Amino acid sequence: MPNTQKTPDDRRPLATPAELSAYLGVPVATLYQWRHRGIGPKVHKLGRHLRYRWTEIEAWVDQQSVDLAA
Fold first, then answer.
1. CA–CA gap between residue 36 and residue 24 (Å, rounded)
2. Which first-to-last residue range defines the signal peptide (predicted)?
């Protein structure tokens, strides 16, 4: 009988730069610039491939909020 309970080990597939680009609405080149400058979402290098964790993307997006009233 398979275990249907979610555990911390359950993970979504990692995002590719193309998927993240589409999600954020920015060019892939911008993601590479952010990586070089150390200002974008945390990136993981798997062999020669760059991948992003969705939870880290969402946390990074949440940190980008700006209070325009200030």
1. 18
2. none
Tokens matching residue 16: 């590719």
Instruction: Tell me the C-alpha distance between 4 and 15, whole Å.
Output: 24
* pLDDT tens-digit readout, 2-35: 555 555 556 789 999 999 999 999 999 999 999 9
Phi/psi for 15 (5° steps) reads -90, 140
User: In the block, which residue shows the tokens 């009988």?
Assistant: 1
The neighbouring-strand residues paired with 50 are 45
Rounded Cα distance between 56 and 43, Å, is 9
For the chain, the average pLDDT equals 88
